[in-house]
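dude i think i finally got it to work??
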Amino acid sequence: MGLSAAVHLRRAERRARVTVLERGRVGDAASRASAAGVRVMGRDPAERALALESLARWPDLDRELDGRTGYRRSAGLRVALDEAGWAEARATVEEQRADGVPVELVDAAAAHRLAPGLSPECRGGVHCPIDGQAEAVATVDAWATAARRLGVNIEEGVGAVALAVEGTRVAAVDRSDGTRLPCDAALVAGGAWSAALLAQIGVKLPLRGRGLQMVLTDAAPESLTPVVGAFGRPLSLKQLADGAYLIGGGWPARVPDDGVNRWEVLEDSVRGSLEVARAVYPPLVTRTVARSWAGIEAFTPDDLPVLGPVRGLDGLLVAAGFSGHGFALVPAVGDVLARLALGLDPLAHLWRGLRADRPGLGAAPKPRR
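look at this
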């Protein structure tokens, strides 16, 4: 999110001095651990417009960044293996279509044509032809390279430790190297670390860090095209360009300290994710685990991100709490943040339901003396 905002800022205003502070290495937290799904299917209504805007940009993103993201519009297929799942599939289609999401209900025969090898128990599912996938590491690197090419200053190993407020405006960022960086706008896109930074200036965001675990199998001949999910079962399954299968779906890793600094792979999650994936797609029974890993992601109580300004504080923008499904939104989110920072058309119709002051989120700052 931060790199995308930086790229959009420099494109819109070449005189702008843009600095990205990264406490570790670029992409080390949640970004490189992402399942890298690029989907609009199954999203909450509050973020559908944002997702549709982003998905329209993904096919041309390699050219836009002059880099390689590994993006493929391979489609998405969410299947039902029981009657409850099939009922849910039927119930979701019309609602999504009303918001412009091009999904279609498919029966069992059509689902098996789209993804040969599915369980014989498959009743059917929902298909979205504009969904797809990319490669997380390649995408992070493409955004970072594009940002540097445009003149963005990316400082790795330097964190933001505090925001300096003058009156009702954020005027500077205190850095972990002991220096202060004055700013006209501060864009907080620090994932699970955002809450602690914002709390220092009285902005309370209910973000909770969770470890999300991924499993990668050995390679197999190419046989699975769409990204496969399942109703009622935690699954995100895709076959990568090299033939390996990547399995996710929100399976937890262990976070042993304060929720944002370390993670450990849980063998129960590895076994659980394999069991679900093999039940939906039996060819995985012959595959073995090559490796597993996790990343720490920030979740909100309603599983929707916080995007935009904070009421009562000028010069502050937030993009956090993407709750495990922010990767696909990166192109549009960066554009929105840049427009807000520069006072341009903020594209408010894309994110009005994600505001920091939406009911129940509690993101307004406390009165300051």
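The domain at 76-129+209-296 is CATH 3.30.9.10 (D-Amino Acid Oxidase; Chain A, domain 2).
im so relieved honestly
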